[in-house]
């Protein structure tokens, strides 16, 4: 009987730990596509990593979309974008979410986008940056400077929610540079959710 009880407690601990993680396989990549993009008509959706196009061969106008994927449930996405400063500024358009803090105009700037209810789904692309490439370069998701974090906030009940950090981050290559593999995987270091949480209060 003791052995059964020990196994039951161990299984409960494993299930609780897995539940608390929320989105353990969170990944972020930059999808590239032709400009213009409409938030309502034919807005890109992603059912698997192979649908994320990380290489844009041409220079000139294109749209760069941060894609958060391998998700289960989320209430916030947070990120910043970097690109060559020679490309100038961007026009950032938020297509998803109920509210946002921050904004993206210049390389290195970021935003946190929140929903008032829990969202479920394998992926979300919360918006896009209209860029004009004047030379070869890369567009990368980077941590939002206001908090030092990037990732998603899950929907776990108290003592959650929890901040889920990406295990893989993929840049897009533009104008002759090959983008990264959105189907790869690696580990990154965790930090805290408290700073961004206070921004939405």
Largest sheet: 8 strands, mixed
Shape: globular
- The count of DSSP E runs of length 2 or more, i.e. the number of strands, is 14
Estimated radius of gyration: 18 Å
How many independent structural domains?
1
Using the coordinates shown, work out and report the CATH topology.
Immunoglobulin-like
What class, by secondary structure content? mainly beta
Helix count, DSSP H or I runs of 4 or more residues: 2
Unreliable segments of 5+ consecutive residues: 1-21, 186-197
What fraction of residues sit in β-strands? 35-45%
* Helical content (DSSP H or I, runs of 4+): 10-25%
CATH architectural designation? Sandwich
Q: Characterize the quaternary organization of these chains.
A: single chain
CATH secondary-structure class: Mainly Beta
Order of helices and strands: HEEEEEEEEEEEEEEH
What is the mean predicted local confidence, pLDDT? 87
What separation lies between the terminal Cα atoms?
A: 49 Å
Structure description:
The chain is mainly beta. It has a single domain, classed as Immunoglobulin-like, CATH 2.60.40. 13% of the residues lie in helices and 37% in strands. Strands 2, 4, 6, 7, 10, 11, 12 and 14 form an 8-stranded mixed β-sheet that branches. Strands 1, 3, 5, 8, 9 and 13 form a 6-stranded mixed β-sheet that branches. A hairpin with a 7-residue loop joins β6 (99-102) and β7. The longest helix has 20 residues, at 2-21. It is globular, with a radius of gyration of 18 Å.
């Amino acid at each position: 009987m003791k052995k059964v009880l020990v196994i039951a407690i161990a299984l409960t601990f494993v299930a609780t730990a897995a539940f608390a993680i929320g989105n353990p396989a969170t990944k972020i990549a930059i999808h590239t596509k032709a400009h213009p993009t409409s938030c309502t008509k034919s807005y890109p959706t992603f059912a698997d990593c192979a649908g994320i196009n990380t290489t844009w061969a041409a220079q000139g106008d294109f749209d760069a979309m941060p894609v958060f994927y391998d998700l289960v449930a989320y209430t916030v996405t947070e990120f910043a974008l970097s690109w060559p400063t020679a490309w100038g500024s961007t026009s950032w358009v938020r297509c998803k979410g109920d509210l946002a803090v921050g904004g993206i105009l210049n390389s290195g700037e970021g935003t946190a986008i929140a929903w008032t209810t829990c969202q479920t789904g394998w992926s979300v692309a919360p918006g896009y940056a209209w860029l004009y490439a004047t030379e070869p370069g890369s567009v990368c998701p980077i941590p939002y400077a206001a908090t030092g974090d990037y990732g998603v906030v899950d929907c776990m009940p108290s003592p959650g929610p929890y901040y889920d950090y990406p295990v893989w981050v993929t840049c897009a290559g533009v104008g002759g540079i090959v983008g990264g593999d959105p189907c790869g995987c690696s580990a990154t270091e965790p930090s805290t959710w408290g700073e961004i949480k206070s921004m939405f209060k």
